[in-house]
Amino acid sequence: MSSTGEPATEVRHTDEPPWAQVYRAESPRLMRLATAIVGPADAYDLVADTVGRVVRRADLHTIDDLPAYLTLVVVNGATDRVRSDRRRTDREERAGRLMVTSSVDPTNALDVRRALDRLSPQQRAIAYLVYWEDMTIPDVAHRLDVSEGTVRRQLARAKDRLREVLK
């Protein structure tokens, strides 16, 4: 078991290559996380790239908490991707994508997605882990390698921002 109470991902000595074992074990959770941050169009590539980089660059047996490490790498990769996308998008497109009318219906999935897009990548990741993965503040802090105070602050800011956009 990992320190977060989840079964730790183990790389077993089988005929299956280590990357395939890791990908099979961790990809569903990482896909949910990546989808919450970058959207479904980029999530698959992000997770595949992440697992591929980790397997190529690291001796998997030396990583103490592989799920936490992969989570951190996915969040960092998603943050980089979001920043890159923002730089490529001109100001008018960005303004149009981020505009939300005052008559937002919170039950509308598109409105909620747009509201989530207004959060920073870290706020989105924290909100996802707390509300969709039902992780505790200490578990999220461990997963993202940040302090519990940072998780609390970012979660509060995310909730404030969502309230503002969805009112």
TrEMBL record:
InterPro entries with a match to the protein in the record: RNA_pol_sigma-70-like, RNA_pol_sigma-70_dom, RNA_pol_sigma70_r2, RNA_pol_sigma70_r4_t2, RNA_pol_sigma_r2, RNA_pol_sigma_r3/r4-like, WH-like_DNA-bd_sf
Region (Disordered): 1-20
SUPFAM superfamilies found in the cross-reference section: Sigma2 domain of RNA polymerase sigma factors, Sigma3 and sigma4 domains of RNA polymerase sigma factors
Gene3D superfamilies xref list: 1.10.1740.10, Winged helix-like DNA-binding domain superfamily/Winged helix DNA-binding domain
GO molecular function, one term: sigma factor activity
Gene Ontology terms describing biological process: DNA-templated transcription initiation
Residue ranges constituting the RNA polymerase sigma factor 70 region 4 type domain according to the UniProt record: 111-162
Keywords: DNA-binding, Sigma factor, Transcription, Transcription regulation
Domain RNA polymerase sigma-70 region positions: 23-88
PANTHER family: RNA POLYMERASE ECF-TYPE SIGMA FACTO (PTHR43133), RNA POLYMERASE SIGMA FACTOR HI_1459-RELATED (PTHR43133:SF8)
Family listed: Belongs to the sigma-70 factor family. ECF subfamily.
Stated name of the protein: Unannotated protein
Lineage: unclassified sequences, metagenomes, ecological metagenomes
